[in-house]
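ingest -> fold -> write
write: protein_1
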Amino acid sequence: MNWTLLFIAGLLEIGWAIGLKYTEGFTRLWPSVGTVGAMVVSIALLGLAMRTLPVGTAYAVWTGIGAVGTVILGIVLFSEPATLARLGCVALIVAGIAGLKLTSAA
């Protein structure tokens, strides 16, 4: 269950990272409200997941999910470059997340 909470927290991290772009410096009300809401829920779920997961593993997986998802959505939504080097680095992050999950005792 804690891995599920952590995964959802990571998805929400993607949401608030992308949401920051739409807030235009927190000058737009509804994107700002949604972004702050996603931030709060994401952190809360991360905290709940850390009840049993190691802090280093949970935090690294959370930020990894957020980083990978944000890069992918940046490519899709904002036409950011999808170079081989960028995609290779994303693959390394995914490998790191998988490795941490596979070697976690919780």
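write: protein_2
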Amino acid sequence: MINLGGGWDEALAPLFASEKYKAIREFLKKEYAYHTVYPDMYDIYNCFRYTPLSEVKVVLLGQDPYHNVGQAHGLCFSVREGIPQPPSLINIFKELHDDLGCPVPRSGDLTKWAKQGVLLMNTALTVRAHMANSHKDCGWTWFTDSVISLLSEQKEHLVFLLWGGNARSKKPLIDGSKHLILECAHPSPLSAYNGFFGCRHFSKTNDYLVQHGLTPIDWDLSKD
């Protein structure tokens, strides 16, 4: 039994009760039994546990979890304290510094963002070790697409950050008449210079939130 809290259990109950989710569950039982899978099974749904449904203000979509040892912990782009920052995260912090002047933090743990209402959700919630995208066809796309649609329908004045082709493909699921959609290239070193650097999505997000009477995100991770 999954217990997420924060209003998610009720909202996602139809998904968890469906045959499609049961198929994901059976797939994961075998994967965790016979292979190394990230994140730890108890961390799969951390993006929901750290960000209650009622408090979601920003949705940042990643593709799938980091697939090397110790990196993934259930929040897209984030790594726990003491884990070296992956290249995409380094570029995110560079853009954050250029946009808002925030110092580059020592830790790559984005939990502080999650606790302020930034839903850090990958579009696939698990991955087999050292095999990027290995779980993208197990049913996760259906599950996370359903979450995106639910957020679009039930909430107002969210900011959706769509970085890279995978995230941008989710745009049709979002009602652009009542939410802000910000899209650009992925922060990966392969594409960051094609529009991620200079996107100023952090300041644009906060400007939008303030315009709608919402508390802006304190993006600065260099302080407690």
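write: annotation protein_2
Helices lie at 8-16, 19-34, 46-50, 87-100, 111-114, 136-154, 165-168, 201-211.
DSSP finds eight helices and six strands in the chain.
pipeline exit 0
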